[in-house]
Amino acid sequence: MKTFIFLASLMFTSAFLQAQNYFSFTGSNQSSTVDSVHVLNLTQGTSLTLNGSAKFIKTNYITASNTSCPQTFTDSRDNHVYTAIQIGRQCWMAENLAYLPSVNPSNQGSHTSSLYYVYGYNGSNVTAAKSTPNYMTYGVLYNWPAAMNGSSSSNSIPSGVQGVCPMGWHLPSNAEWDKLKNYLGGEKVAFKKMKSNRGWKKNGNVSNKSGFSGLPGGYRCHSCYFRSIGGYGNWWSSTEGKTDDSWIRHMNSNIACIGKNSDDKEDGYSVRCLKD
């Protein structure tokens, strides 16, 4: 057996440091075992001793990630305050993004230019759009170019796509949505834990056990009109499907699952951001 020293030179205050269970840990922080992974809550500059066979020493066995998830945070672009929720190892916004630099009527659409919609509002005045109950409850509907804000498609974890999200947050990839769904028990279980316990038609409200608080904000369809508020919630990913399509997650009041479609980039859907 050989001893190896790993210095946790971290940019943030605390982190989970993980190594596969080929090793035993010693150091100033006590370790625990979770799913065959040793997890330590380390502070910056902490040294960690790994006792194990030399043949198992590989850097990809050790990962560090910031696990801090604020209860609230402020978007510096417009001073809008959001709530957030830790779900597994992901920190999600617990409400829809409401950043609105401009607003478009539902009869304007594009596969390439950024467009922003507020359900039921067909004017061009941002202040007026922000004063509507639908904006205050459901936030903004974005076409995919607006959600991506010039970034290229990504299906990585993390996506690396800030897109329209605030600084320090990113647009989740299709793979990151899958990670959330799987953590919550799969598509036929996760929806019960993700849907808000208010706002859904036809007895569509459920437990919202995860705190994700998915609301039925409806959408702007490529046929140029708003539809299905109270019945559908739809959220973009950073992952392109076909040339004119990108992957989304959706829930509705009639189907007992969280669905996945590759939908038209011209559609207007909600955005949830993930903390970097």
Tell me the fraction of residues in β-strands, as a range: 25-35%
> How far apart lie the N and C ends?
37 Å
Main sheet record: 4 strands, antiparallel
Number of helices: 5
Query: Into which percent range does the helicity of residues fall?
Result: 10-25%
Provide an overview of this structure:
The protein has 276 residues and is mainly beta. The chain folds into 2 domains: 2-65; 72-275, no CATH class. Helices cover 12% and strands 33% of the residues. The chain is built from 5 helices and 19 strands. The strands form 7 sheets. A 4-stranded antiparallel sheet has the order 4-5-2-7, with no helix packed on it. Strands 1-6-3 form a 3-stranded antiparallel sheet, with no helix packed on it. Strand 16 and strand 17 form a beta hairpin. The radius of gyration is 21 Å and the shape is globular. The protein starts with a strand and ends with a strand. Mean pLDDT is 82; it is low at 1-48 and 52-66.
